[in-house]
Specification:
Layout lengths: L9 H12 L13 E6 L6 H11 L2 E6 L3 H9 L8 E5 H9 L3 E2 L14 H4 L8 E2 L6 E2 L2 E7 L2 E4 L22 E4 L2 H11 L13 H14 E5 L2 H10 L4 E3 L4 H9 L4 E4 L5 E11 L5 H11 L2 H9 L4 E2 L13 E3 L6 H12 L4 H4 L3
């Protein structure tokens, strides 16, 4: 009980801790009439998972699904409207919220299911950006939830062998048959990889013009850009695409397989960007207790199982086919200037020439 340090009355705190540690049995309805506003990525909060949480707590869940890091930032940084109470964010983007004072610490003692996570995810101090401070002053900023690498999805009928390089996205043979992700931060990291930058997350000023040229070339080779996983599946199948850069990793591969596509999945030799998504609590959250209960629920057996079987993602609570054998991964880090990357990318998408893209 010592870990329960919520800004609640002593009675409420003891009651909440008892419920959480007991697993919040169905029918407890300890939060009847309350509303939890959740901000998450596609597939993270399946309908039956939400329903089970509402039955367990008596609370109502208002789920908002976002499709880009910038959309997530906009939702949480704007001051208008009711505050969100819990959100999913990757460890690299988490630093942005911490720097802006938009996230508050999570109390692991109020997330009993975190004890069931794989050792590498329980060692939170070893995960860059997950813990603020040191020693007794250390604060956990988020709890790991799921992860994936950004590989290449290819049509087995059009590729005689799996693509082994990111260069395939630029290959003239596949002009008009490539699907790519609509996001500035990740696409400039992709270009930096192709240019041999020391770090894809730190693009030196001298390489910026070359990166812009590289992404303009990509735009010319690409059939279409997507934001959400389901959108990418529709694009891939409707237009008979040959290759797709999988920003959501094996989640997209799983969705395409389920839709009847004969596709394969490959990790490029240059390495694959990889993300670790966590649950965090906004500084403005009005439902800190419910937010902890939500995080605990999402680490439970039902949610973790659906994450793997339905979405093709890897859970942090058990090894799976999605997590086994991953290699050459480049874990996402904060980029040198996310806003500048997004601005340049929007100009590239609009068809601007390099000089205009690079203009102040």
């Amino acid at each position: 009980m010592d870990g329960c340090r919520l800004p609640l009355s002593a009675v409420s705190r003891r009651a909440l801790c008892a419920l959480l540690l007991a697993g919040l049995p169905a029918g407890a309805a300890w939060a009847a009439g309350q509303t939890l506003r959740v901000l998450a990525w596609p597939g993270y909060a399946e309908p039956e998972v939400v329903q089970a949480f509402e039955k367990k707590t008596g609370a109502k869940v208002e789920l908002t699904v976002i499709d880009t890091d910038e959309a997530l930032w906009h939702k949480l940084s704007q001051r208008a409207g009711p505050a969100f109470d819990v959100f999913a964010v990757n460890t690299a983007e988490l630093q942005r919220y911490r720097a802006a004072g938009l996230v508050q610490p999570v109390d692991p003692a109020l997330v009993p299911n975190a004890r069931q996570q794989l050792p590498r995810f329980r060692d939170r101090a070893a995960i860059p950006g997950l813990v603020a401070g040191h020693g007794a002053e250390a604060k956990v900023l988020a709890i790991p939830f799921t992860y994936a690498e950004m590989g290449l999805i290819y049509d087995r009928h059009q590729f005689s062998q799996p693509p082994d390089s990111l260069q395939a996205l630029w290959d003239p043979r596949w002009q008009g048959k490539v699907i790519a992700y609509n996001g500035g931060s990740h696409n400039f990291s992709l270009a930096a990889q192709m240019l041999g930058a020391e770090s894809p997350f730190r693009l030196p000023p001298a390489l910026r013009p070359k990166a812009v040229d590289k992404l303009i070339e990509l735009r010319r080779n690409v059939l279409g850009f997507y934001s959400e996983p389901n959108e990418s599946v529709k694009l891939f199948q409707r237009h008979g695409a040959a290759l797709m850069y999988a920003n959501y990793g094996r989640q997209q591969y799983q969705l395409l397989k389920a839709a009847g596509a004969d596709v394969g999945y490959a990790i490029p030799r240059e390495g694959a960007l990889a993300w670790l998504d966590c649950w965090a609590i906004p500084a403005a959250s009005r439902q800190r207790a419910l937010a902890h209960a939500w995080i605990d629920h999402l680490l439970g057996r039902q949610a973790s199982s659906l994450l793997v079987s339905r979405q093709g993602l890897a859970a942090t609570t058990a090894e799976s086919a999605a997590s086994a054998g991953a290699h050459r991964l480049l874990w996402l880090e904060p980029v040198e200037d996310a806003g500048q990357r997004e601005l340049m990318w929007s100009r590239i998408r609009s068809g601007d020439r390099a000089a205009r893209v690079l203009a102040p």
